[in-house]
Amino acid sequence: MEIASFSATQSVMCNKLSKVGPTGAVRALSQVVLRTASARLSTFQRWERSLSSPSAQALSTAGFIYRGVADQTQCISCFIVLSRWIPEHDPDFEHRRHSPTCEFVLNRQSESANRMQSSHVHSFSSLRTPPDL
Ligand SMILES: [Zn+2]
């Protein structure tokens, strides 16, 4: 059991293994097919760690595919491999932390910034709604 060392090393549990060069097949796939979250999710069919790691859904949304080995996940954009997930990990956050210049990460960030902006606009406009007379 590794529970004793859990809290002390929690922040570094999600280790960057290496920038594993993808095989030609993965690279070719990643260019087209795996650009959609649902396609990436389909690589998690053998993901048996839903209780000890973030969900396959969360990982695929964050840009990862499952490599089919242990709990190694790989980004389809920057090809970084992350493993040793624990449930407390936020796949988006870990992706950004280990690969801040990843194109996928940057796109996700601007997407969420846009979402926040539009929700601000929305709450402003509802504030300005005149009361019923
Ligand atoms: Zn990436």
Automatic annotation (TrEMBL):
Residues 114-133 are annotated as: Disordered. InterPro entries: BIR_rpt, IAP. It comes from the Eukaryota. It holds the Pfam family BIR. SMART domains: BIR. This is Uncharacterized protein. It comes from Daphnia magna. The lineage of its organism: Eukaryota, Metazoa, Ecdysozoa, Arthropoda, Crustacea.
